[in-house]
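Standup notes, structure subgroup. Blocker cleared on the pyridoxal-5'-phosphate input:
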Amino acid sequence: MNRVAKRALEIPPFIVMDVLEKAYELERKGHHIIHLEIGEPDFSTPECICEAACESIAKGETHYTHSLGIIELREAICEHYEKKYGVRVDPEQVLVTSGTSPALLMIFSALLDSGDEIIISDPHYPCYPNFANFLGAKPVFVNVYEEEGFQLRPKEIMEKIGPRTKAILINSPSNPTGNLLSSTRIKKIAALGPTVISDEIYHGLVYGEKEHTILEFTDNAFVLNGFSKLYAMTGWRLGYLISPPDFIRPIQKMQQNFFISAGSVSQWAGLAALKKARHDVEQMKTIYDERRTYMIKRVRKMGFGLPVEPAGAFYMLVNAKHLSESSYELAFEILEKAKVGVTPGIDFGQNAEGYLRLSYANSLDNIKEGLKRLEKYLNRR
Ligand SMILES: Cc1ncc(COP(=O)(O)O)c(C=O)c1O
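Run returned:
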């Protein structure tokens, strides 16, 4: 008999963490590494947010909160969705969580019984299939392709829908591709029938066309969102979900059992983020866009495949099949020889094998230096 439960033994690691840990090991030995594998903003949390957190501590807001989250924050989230997308959400449909990750786990837990299916794009954020498998559900993959900028094809999703399909997951802008789903496609996906789970954590980080929430097209949907990326608040662990009314009570019970409530101080900080940080966000976005434009030009010049410009988040997934069949080996080779951290495509699904994810959540100087090192190494490889 195993001492460790099967589900704990079988949950896969994040490969990007393997790369990061190897990078730290090299740094400890005195090497200088440029990190283009990172999945979090390089900016510090804006001051107005930190100030609000300090004020909340001074006021003694250091207790458990309502399990759905403080009402001020839930109302501000509803206001945000109404102002930005013109959709009406009731604060009773909002549940504030300790990051987007627990929200994702609770939505999956509320929707998926053992043997149920959830349709997910390949490539995808690694947690999606890992959480589904953890619950005994089955991820069903729909490939997306670089020639189309990794857009999901509603027709292919339809072909994968079966009697056990409970949900379709979309993530726009996407990690790892930076793809922004067009509103026409979201509308078609919303009309397919199964509940849509829309991970909107990279909303706000779009550099041209406007992003759309799933709630513009259907009520049969869950929204996942959070403060980690847009407001540079990864360490605050703050996210939220918007749920159809009939799911709120079951999810609230899970929250009470598993987490009690999200952190009180983080929630007050989140309120300030929504109310006061617009200018800071605009500044960060302008800087990301400058880096994005530079990186696109440069990687294309270096011979990596990137037929369509990524339009959102802070990632691009570039084709490196001309360099290696194994993105895992290639990423470690680049780290050890060129001293640049990149994420192997295989972390994001079989269909991303042969690709590398580059993040521009690093300064332009570091990006320039990282790509220079990479080019130099590849030229003499
Ligand atoms: C697509 C996507 N969803 C969810 C998360 C989780 O974010 P957090 O738990 O920090 O809110 C991430 C983090 O990288 C992500 O890329």
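Discussed briefly. The chain has a mean pLDDT of 97.
Next: hand off to the docking folks.
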